[in-house]
Amino acid sequence: MDDPTRVEWREWGQAAFDEAAGADIPVLLSLTATWCDHCHEMDAETYAEPRIAANVNDSFVPVRVDVDRHPRVRDRYNMGGFPSTVFLAPNGEVLTGAGYLGPDGMRQVLDSVRTMWQTKGSGAARVPRQLREDNPPAGELTPEIEQAMLGQLSETYDETAGGWGQEPKFPLPDALEFALKRDREMALRSYDAVSANLLDEYEGGFYRFATDRDWSGLQHEKLLDSNGALVRAFANAYLHTGKDEYREPAERTIDYLTATLWNSDADAFANSQAPGEDAAHGLDATDRATADEPPVDDGVFAGPNALAIEGLLTYYAYTDDERARRYAERALATLREELLVDGVVAHTLENAASDDDPVCLLTNQARALAALTTAASTIDPSVLADATAIADATIDRLHDGDSFLDGPADGVGLLERPLRPLDANVALADGLLELAVLSGEDRYRERARETLEAFAGASDRFGVQVARYATAVSRLLEGPLVLRVAAEPGSDLHRAALRLADHEKVVVPDVDALEAGTARVERGDRVSDPAETPEELSERVQTVLD
């Protein structure tokens, strides 16, 4: 990120905290992102003001952190959005924090923090709540968890504008997919709202969110992770409905990903595109074609690429779209060959080449596991070896008690405090359930159960943002619908299996235990007779589900 400020930023690390301790002054931590318009605005209007910059440089140790490149710092110090402006004691504990601050607001906060430090020192600092409560409340997994989440969606559903909640409005792909199987009308109205309001009709791809209840106030940045997840979500809506109105947003987003966010040097997807000028988004197609393209962050990150791979392969499974398959295979090769080391997924391609022992981060592990299980189900069963390696490395390095830590519990500041992110634990548990079916290793299913149980005591308070928790619990308790196919990926029988039933099934290709050219349907203790044709397989699915 270009730095127009006059602030003498330090990098995140022990040296900055040692400097603060030696000078007995606080740290000013600025959390920013390359795609964050308000971050650039704060740089230009606040940190570039000479007196504010001098104040910061004289009375604080200023540290600048890119949240995409340092996710563990982001997750411990985020003040609810970006930019986050956080004041820390030299031990890394939080004095106070805010989001965007204009020049007047910054002057007031700087004076307030200086006075606080002079009068109370480190006594004013605190550890955020999520880092004080180490173990989540465990509980029993019951069908009521799924019903409670459906109730949450129904209660927060916006009958007027679609989607869930008042404002801001995010697309919430996991909630879309949960509702798709359980309340299709509510789900499809929300899909319609997302595509009508967040899809860029000119270039494709989805904007990140809207600030207002009626989906106005668009924030025009586009992120790879949310777009990858939405390709998957809209592809799954197409599976359920067969309607092009759900296939086309996925197709348009693949257009965007493969044109604008493809990093040909890395053979993978770039991380994000900044908003650019708001006025440009209102131009007609002719004028927009001549407008300057908003800048792209070419950084290649493992987790967002894994989401994109999963989304493209899901779309390919239902459409035979060769472009989606081709780009997914290329990004998957980069993930496996450049970012994966002994089951640990390096966070970025920027430092992977020089890092023989990358830091194991739960979100990256969970997303890469999902990408590989999807690939094993749709195009190449041999990648299951890498999926197993990722699962085993995650269990070995991050499993603690009955759940998983976000990363190693060491580092500067609050990084040494354990954090058990619900969303990443759920994503990993869901991936372990898939892996158990594909590999035949029931130990992964038991680890998934244990992980989901570790959070069940608080499940009645979970919001729609973690609807995937209820999805995973439902799949665990009922057992996923499994279609085993004794034929290679791409055969007529395999392609039919991918397109039958709902999106929560698991398709296992190239099965040795069945007679060649046949398929079988399973759910729990129910097992169908063999099927030899797509038509017979469809009948077997209905028999098992009825």
Describe this structure in words.
Residues 1-115 form the Thioredoxin domain. With 546 residues, the chain is of the alpha+beta class. Helix content is 50%, strand content 11%. The strands form seven sheets. The chain has a four-stranded mixed β-sheet, with helices on both faces. It has a four-stranded mixed β-sheet with strand order 17-16-18-19, with helices on both faces. Strand 16, helix 21 and strand 17 (506-508) form a beta-alpha-beta unit. The model has no long low-confidence stretch (mean pLDDT 96).
Give the helix/strand layout.
Elements: H1 14-23, E1 27-32, H2 37-47, H3 50-59, E2 61-66, H4 71-77, E3 84-88, E4 94-98, H5 103-120, H6 129-132, H7 144-156, H8 173-182, H9 184-198, E5 209-210, E6 218-219, E7 222-223, H10 224-241, H11 244-259, E8 262-263, E9 268-269, E10 272-273, H12 285-290, E11 296-297, H13 302-319, H14 322-339, E12 340-341, E13 344-345, H15 349-352, H16 362-378, H17 384-398, E14 399-400, E15 403-404, H18 422-439, H19 442-453, H20 467-478, E16 482-485, H21 492-498, E17 506-508, E18 519-523, E19 526-527, H22 534-545
